[in-house]
Amino acid sequence: MPAVLAVGVMAGVMAEGALAASFAVSGTNFQVASGKLSSQGLASYVQTDRSVDGKGHPVALLGIGEARLSDICQAAEVDTPVGKVVFKLTAGGKAGEVTASNLIIDGEDLVGDARFGTAQIGRDASTLDSVDGVKGPAGKFGLQAGDIEVVGVRSHAWSATGGNFRLKGLRVDVSLDGKKCF
């Protein structure tokens, strides 16, 4: 229960802008899934996330402006002294749409059926301007789009941050050998 409370407090503090969204990743990636993701604005470039032990994890930073998701599932499998535990967060679905402003996902992959409007592929990452605050290093490969829609979202990520999350029907479940998102 203290871990769930800590996650809730941290999410609230990040949403208020009092805590920087840049942090050392845990060393455990997690699944992210949604039936449908749409947004006005996408910006992406490659970067490396670092865990506390200094290990690098190459990711595509995906900046999503005003994200709307039909549902969301995030799950991480964690080794503990009592066995493998699945930490799973779900929201949306019948409870209603999930929203987040300036959602940043550091992902290893993204699978789904996508539509991009006004796409610019190969744009210098330092000139990205479709999502506030999402710019990469000068000279690096970047891409952006004016609007996006991805159906059947499946991703493995190292981190996800955002401001103003609205998670209707939130459910957090921690269980031994529990089911992940996919």
Shape: globular
Q: Could you name the ranges where pLDDT drops below 50 across 5 or more consecutive residues? A: 1-21
How many beta-strand segments? 8
Q: Find the structural class using helix and strand composition.
A: mainly beta
Number of H- or I-type helical stretches: 1
- State the end-to-end CA separation: 25 Å
Whole-number count of domains: 1
Task: Describe the model.
By secondary structure, this protein is mainly beta. The chain has one domain. It contains 1 helix and 8 strands, in the order H-E-E-E-E-E-E-E-E. Strands 1, 2, 3, 4, 5, 6, 7 and 8 form an 8-stranded antiparallel sheet that branches. The two termini are 25 Å apart.
Key descriptive features of the protein:
mainly beta; globular; eight-stranded antiparallel β-sheet
Ordered list of secondary-structure elements with their pairings:
Elements: H1 2-15, E1 30-50, E2 56-69, E3 71-80, E4 83-92, E5 98-117, E6 120-124, E7 141-166, E8 171-176
Antiparallel strand pairs: 1-2, 1-3, 1-7, 2-5, 3-4, 4-8, 5-7, 6-7
Quick structural gist:
The protein is 8% helix and 62% strand.
